[in-house]
Amino acid sequence: MEAKIILLPGDGIGPEVVGEARKVLTAVAHRHNHTFHFTEKMMGGCAIDAVGDPLPEETLGACLESDAVLLGAVGGPKWSDPTAKVRPEQGLLKLRKSLGVFANIRPVKVFPALANASPLRPERVQAVDIVFVRELTGGIYFGQPQGRETVAEGRSGHDTMRYNEEEIRRVLQIGVELARGRRGKVTSVDKANVLASSRVWREVAHEVAAENPDVEFEDVLVDAMAMYLVNRPGDFDVVVTGNMFGDILSDEASMISGSLGMLPSAALGAGGPGLYEPIHGSAPDIAGQGIANPLATILSAAMLLRSSLGLEVEARVVETAVSRILAAGHRTADLARSDERSIGTQAMGDLVVAVLG
Ligand code: NAD
């Protein structure tokens, strides 16, 4: 097959990890007779420096015309002044909105070879295989009105949490479809005991549950979910929730696997190009040192092969290669115990390429 893939390396370690994912995708294309056309574009802090805009029109246009977009990470101390008018994250929010990617898919799986790296006891994490589906383009991160003002009592800020039933239904439906290909269970997370928007969420969740009786449904309050992820993470299959709850819970869940450097994500919408990125940020503390773990980005590339290009076999080939390398004991610095030798970003990428089936 032929596919147009836009690469947005971004800032910090972004270019280092995207470079390795590109290497892996190129090797997959070569071995399985596909042609992938890669185009690199600017986004994030580097784009602010170059043209004053975190998501230049040219970058957005190329993304909209592509089959899939692979992003590294954006941001860093240079652009994090809270009073700055333009910030790298604005580019990311605009890109998600423009691509119409309303569902963020984050698998959290513990590779057997890394069970010891989890802060939880190995026997508690061995069975963990969760897919988070976070609503990505609505809720409190986008609700209007939003702003700040000075009132008689001093500075004041406000945000609006709003969900309509269509936004809730379509993201729950993605959860249902994912659950069907897995263990058949959806956990819908809300705060219906306090929030009106969550009470609408729960009503719609019950309607979706009734329409899909082959899938097991449960509701869990977000505060309880924060506890369950620590004391019984193996009980969950697909977890569907709103934008802010999903942001926080999926970061909590990511710690189960032991390293941010291992976790991929996909943002999907209704048929347009998907957006794939590691869940970690630009890691300015290690940028430019050649020690970042590229596996989260490589696993994001595997999700891209599966969900945007329909190449399931090739996706599995990449995931199996990562598993084999970890089982053979290879570790980047973030994964290595103090008594283990670590390898650099490029060496890890080269190993994945070398063991691709
Ligand atoms: P971070 O994820 O960049 O780093 C947190 C810690 O994890 C750091 O110690 C870092 O060295 C380590 N780490 C992260 N990825 C790693 C990898 N692949 N290999 C090895 N170690 C890794 O989070 P942060 O420090 O809170 O944020 C840094 C910048 O990234 C901020 O400007 C933030 O806004 C931005 N950020 C961007 C995104 C995105 O682009 N989607 C997401 C989160 C944070």
Describe the structure.
The protein is of the alpha/beta class and 357 residues long. The chain has twelve helices and twelve strands. It has a ten-stranded mixed β-sheet, with helices on both faces. Helix 1 (14-31) packs across helix 10, helix 6 packs across helix 7 (196-211) and helix 10 (295-307) runs antiparallel to helix 11. It starts with a strand and ends with a helix. The mean pLDDT is 95. Bound molecules: nicotinamide-adenine-dinucleotide.
> Structural class, from secondary structure content?
alpha/beta
CATH architecture of the largest domain: 3-Layer(aba) Sandwich
Spatial sequence of strands, sheet with the most strands? 2-1-3-12-11-4-5-10-8-9
Q: Termini separation (Å)?
A: 19 Å
Question: What top-tier CATH class of the largest domain fits best?
Answer: Alpha Beta
The portion of residues assigned to helices is 40-55%
CATH fold-level assignment of the largest domain: Isopropylmalate Dehydrogenase
- The CATH homologous superfamily of the largest domain is termed Isopropylmalate Dehydrogenase
Strand residue content: 15-25%
Number of strands: 12
- Count of individual domains: 2
Low-confidence parts: none
Shape: globular
The whole-angstrom Rg is 20 Å
